[in-house]
Amino acid sequence: MTEVSIEKLTKSYGNARAVNAISMKIAEGEFISLLGPSGCGKTTTLKMIAGFEDVTEGAIRFDGQDVVNTPAEKRDIGMVFQNYALFPHMTVEQNLAFGLEMRKVPKPQMRERIAKVLDMVQLKGYEARYPRQLSGGQQQRVALGRALVIEPKILLLDEPLANLDAKLREEMRVFIRDLQRRVGITTVYVTHDQAEAMTMSDRVVVMFGGRIAQIGSPTDIYERPENHEVAEFVGQVNLVQAKVESVGEGTATVTSPLGDFTLPTKISVKPGNMVSLALRPEAIELSKATEGQPAATVLASYYSGALMDYRLKLDNGDELHAQTFPVNRFAEGDRVALHAPAERFWLVGVSK
Amino acid sequence: MSPGKTKGIGPYLLIAPAGLLLAVFLVLPYLNIGVMSFRVPGQGTPYGEGFTLVNYARFFADSFYIWQVVNTLWIGFLTTAICLVIGFPVAWQLTRPNMRFRGLAYGLVLSPLLVGIVIRSYGWTILLGNNGLINRTLTNMGLIDSPLPLMYNALGIIIALVHVFLPFMILPIMNGIQGIDPSLEAAARSLGASRTTAFRRIVLPLSMPGIQAGCILVFVLSLSAYVTPSLIGGLKVKTMAVTVVDALIDTFQWPFGSALALMLSVTGAVIVVIFGRMTRMKWKVA
Amino acid sequence: MSRPFLTGYCLLIYAFLLAPILVVVGASFNAGAFLTFPPQGLSFRWYITFFNNEVFMRAIRTSLWVAFVTMIISGVIGTMAALFHVLHARRSKDVVRIAMLAPLLLPEVLTAISLLFFVYAIGIGTQNMVGMIIGHVLITLPFVFINVSASLESFDPSWDMAARSLGAPKLVRFRRIMLPMIKSGVIGGCLFAFIISFDIFTISFMLKGVGTSTLPIQLFDYLRTNFTPEAAAVSTVSIVLTLTVVIISEKVLGLRIHRF
């Protein structure tokens, strides 16, 4: 079990900074995801942790020991690659044995550990197969097994599910998460898929342009995003115009077409300011319009099986997106009442 | 990202032997032959002391050599053109997805490459000679009275050169056609183009780089061909390469031979560059 | 062009490609003293004449020896260059590629002449086979380079990274991951270098010394003055030798040789 700490880690290519002085601490046994759009520096960060990219500045410590100058082959990491990188000329067993051979593990012990891992990744009986004889999901599990059999200090995964189809991807999310819990290994997972990061991680690191935008639990990231960019990246957001009525200790009271609320605020506002309120589509509940409730007109509705999506128009002309269970269905042109609990709103900024 | 990335001079040790070999035994010799063409012709030795322009003057003063260059270029041009015309359909057929016996056909296209050039030219002398297979057969059938002049002339040289270099035309064109996404042709057909139109408007333009590479390769190769013209052309028809080699090996005129070789090469290079410009393609090396 | 017409046309071209080779093989079994048609019966007499002809036998030994030495030198140098080109070259990538292919793109006759003058200028001369072998290495180098590069291009860098993450040091990675993966490219390139070298004419013709004639040279000299079917027998043996190498490489070793 290893604790990883990253301090002011920087990677420059000429004048461009792919990773810009990021710092984070990863606890023993923690599952952490690096989430962000392509080019945000998440993969570069992972490669620096693995030792495949040189570090321009900063430190990477495994249990307090700086590994920046340790070559990848001496870092004792387990890595799963996006394309699995299974050795095509070796059988499943030979792939699994490779890392153990490098560690000069005696034969009987080796066989025992391989058997244990094959059991873990549910591939018993596939020892003699070559990678090309396996399905994508099986190859994925061999890659996982190959990384785990060496019992590394940390497990690094670089978008390992990107090449799988949607259904298998969801199964593997759960599989990897459960396996990681059981083994209890410190894990860094790189992905651009927010749902993947949410379901699997203890904590998510959202990265934009080589910097960390927010570190927090999936709930924090989703429900209390620190800025609009994070909010947009991890889900859909509605913005509603509101006016500040009064200001308290770290709070502000606003009036909006959806009602009056008192909300915590991290930004400084003055009474009379126009601000934007952010709200997730699924935080809105709809019912038949009644007097005295904020109301809207249904512009369009979309059925997607588990959920209904609505495009709504407020009376002031603003548009909203709402997502509900298809219990009560509304048709185009219907008047609906809007309900949204105050704790699901957050204040994102002053507008002129 | 490169595997096994190392710092320092390590990687350069990998390229050093090849670099050294090419620098010493390709670049220096080519510079040397340039210098040689300005040497004074020797008396009893391959070359004399000092430098002169007399070798080039001799070339330009004698219409015999000029005509020989023109003749060689003409043979090269015809060889290239014929290779293109007869090679393209073969390349096209070889890239059809539903073709049967593809492996065999591909092997046939490559077969001349695996047989030495002397042997192939020899084969043509057996076929084309006055007492050769073709003339004998025609005579025996009573179709001709005297043998057709198939050898010891430009016709024989071109027939044999086309045979020798046809694979060098077919392979780049095949590579070009294989690089074309088959759905492009399907897309053109779905937009209402006939098979012929789809071929003319889509496949042909996209296979131009392959055609160009093939043409350049065949043209350059036929200009410098020595064995075939020498065996098939005999003493009567000489191409420039034959004259150059004779000047060097038989008469030891090194400076003059160098000048001749360079004049032919420079002319060939200029034509290739003009051809490249005219077809307006960025030509890639095969 | 309609399908049957295209097929017929292509068959004609294949016949054209094969004709001179078949004629040579056919002529080698001619029992007559001259190349006459129709042949005067079948016989192996010209093969027996050939095998008893010390000049040709020496030429064939010379050719095999030169091709073997060329293959080894070209194989090593070309593989190293390909490793540099694919794995390490950055900005120099195009330059390296053009330089490595240069011997293929330059007219062989000019290369041969240049090299001839040069070996005299630096005193190697043509007393031994050094100059000729250098020429053969130059000509065959691009083929090794192309074959090894092609197999390296399909080498996925993440295999090497995976091996690193599993703790494999550089040499182990080269031996256990890289080498098995590019083996077919290296062997294919070497065998092709052998075949090419065996058939090289112009370079050998210019750089041959006394008693170092290779088979194509000996055959060429012979054909200038003789017309007996012995030349056909020599040619046929040479074709069979080449074919054997090709069949071994493609069928037995299962290799796909990249010609371009």
How far from one another are the termini of chain B? 26 Å
What is the mean pLDDT of chain C? Answer: 86
Order of helices and strands of chain B: HEEHHHHHHHHHHHH
- Gross geometry of chain B: globular
CATH topology assignment of chain B: MetI-like fold
Number of helices of chain C: 11
Q: What is the assigned CATH homologous superfamily of chain B?
A: MetI-like
Please describe the biggest sheet of chain C, giving its number of strands, its sense, and whether it closes into a barrel.
Answer: none
Question: Oligomeric status of the shown chains?
Answer: heterotrimer
CATH homologous superfamily placement of chain C? MetI-like
Using CB atoms under 8 Å apart, which protein chain pair has the greatest interface?
B-C, 83 and 91 residues
What is the alpha-carbon Rg of chain C in Å?
A: 22 Å
Count of spatially separate domains of chain B: 1
Summed over residues and divided by their number, the pLDDT of chain B gives a mean of 83
How large is the share of residues in beta strands of chain B?
Answer: under 5%
Here the CATH topology of chain C equals MetI-like fold
From the N-terminal CA to the C-terminal CA of chain C, the straight-line distance is 28 Å
Give the CA-based shape of chain C: globular
- Structural class of chain B, by secondary structure, is mainly alpha
Record keyword descriptors for this entry:
heterotrimer, A: alpha+beta, Rossmann fold, OB fold (Dihydrolipoamide Acetyltransferase, E2P), 2 domains, 5-stranded antiparallel beta sheet, 8 helices, B: mainly alpha, MetI-like fold, disordered N terminus, disordered C terminus
Task: Set down the secondary structure blueprint.
The complex is a heterotrimer of chains A (352), B (286) and C (260).
Chain A: E1 4-13, E2 16-26, E3 31-35, H1 42-50, E4 57-62, E5 65-66, E6 77-80, H2 92-102, H3 107-120, H4 136-149, E7 154-158, H5 166-183, E8 186-191, H6 194-200, E9 203-208, E10 211-216, H7 218-223, H8 228-234, E11 238-247, E12 251-256, E13 259-264, E14 274-279, E15 285-288, E16 295-303, E17 308-314, E18 319-324, E19 335-339, E20 346-351
Helix pairs in contact in A: 2-4, 3-4
Chain B: H1 10-36, E1 39-41, E2 47-51, H2 54-61, H3 63-94, H4 102-114, H5 117-128, H6 133-140, H7 154-178, H8 182-190, H9 195-206, H10 208-223, H11 227-233, H12 240-249, H13 254-278
Antiparallel strand pairs in B: 1-2
Helix pairs in contact in B: 2-13, 3-7, 3-10, 4-7, 5-7, 5-11, 7-10, 7-11, 8-9, 10-13, 12-13
Chain C: H1 3-27, H2 45-51, H3 54-88, H4 93-105, H5 108-121, H6 130-153, H7 157-165, H8 170-199, H9 202-207, H10 215-225, H11 230-252
